[in-house]
Every structure is written in C-alpha cells, then in structure tokens.
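In response to the reviewer comment on reproducibility (Comment 2.3), we provide here a single inverse folding case reported in full, input and output, so that an independent group could reproduce the run without further information from us. The structure tokens appear first.
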C-alpha cells in the first residue's frame, strides 16, 4: 500500500523539536500564547516553523479563513504544516443483508500544509479573540 502523504523537508524531527522546546527558555509559553487553540504538538510545530522561516508568531488560519476575515495571503507565502486527525469509518461488507453492517471507526493523523500566520497576510484590521479557558482544538477541516 502506498502512502498518500509527501515528506515535508522543513519540519524537524520530533525529538529535535522536543529538545529545543524544553531547552529554549520561553519557547513553550510563546507557542501557547500564539496558538492556544491547538494541541501542544501543533503549537511547537507552528512556533518552530515560524522561527525557521523568520515569521512573526501570531494567529493562524487557512487560506479561505483569512479571506472570510477580509485578509489575503501574500503571493508566494508557504503554508505552515500541522498534524490533523482524520476519522474514518470502515464497514464490514461480509455481513448478510438482513444484519446490520459492522462499522468500525478509527482515527489516523496526517501532516497537511494549510495554515498561514497573520504576518503572511494583508488586508483588513484583525483583532484576535481572547483565549477561551479550557478550549483545546485540533485544526478544523474547512
């Protein structure tokens, strides 16, 4: 079976990311402050990519998400890569037609390049919403 994901060259290995996150003072706090709606893994992934590319960390959104907010992604900007969950259902086709088909749900994780930092955009003034206590989301799928 062939993998449908392509390796991303600008993402360091997880062990190197974790070593840097633990050893560099303030890195985890900076990541949390800028990307509070994302998992800790995606926060670290986003902040390191921003540092590697010389981008100012800040709110992130997808291309169409920025357009909906009156902002446009600058020409030539490359999207940040984050890990997103994909939930799938697999039906067991071997059951008889009178029985309910067995449905098994499983989640896998894939890396997708779909997010842009506000510093990669131009347009209307943007005021980020305040961090909502207890809210913790993986990247949305729209």
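Designed residues, in position order:
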């Amino acid at each position: 079976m062939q993998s449908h994901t392509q390796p991303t060259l600008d993402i360091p290995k997880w062990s190197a990311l974790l070593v840097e996150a633990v050893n560099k003072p303030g890195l985890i706090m900076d990541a949390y402050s800028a990307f509070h709606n994302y998992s800790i893994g995606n926060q670290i992934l986003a902040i390191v990519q921003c540092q590697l590319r010389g981008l100012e960390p800040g709110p992130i959104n997808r291309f169409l998400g920025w357009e909906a907010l009156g902002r446009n992604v600058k020409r030539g900007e490359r999207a940040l890569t984050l890990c997103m969950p994909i939930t799938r259902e697999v039906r067991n086709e071997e059951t008889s037609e009178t029985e309910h088909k067995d449905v098994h749900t499983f989640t896998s994780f894939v890396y997708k390049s779909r997010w842009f930092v506000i510093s990669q955009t131009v347009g209307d003034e943007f005021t980020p919403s305040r961090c909502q206590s207890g809210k913790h989301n993986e990247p949305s799928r729209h």
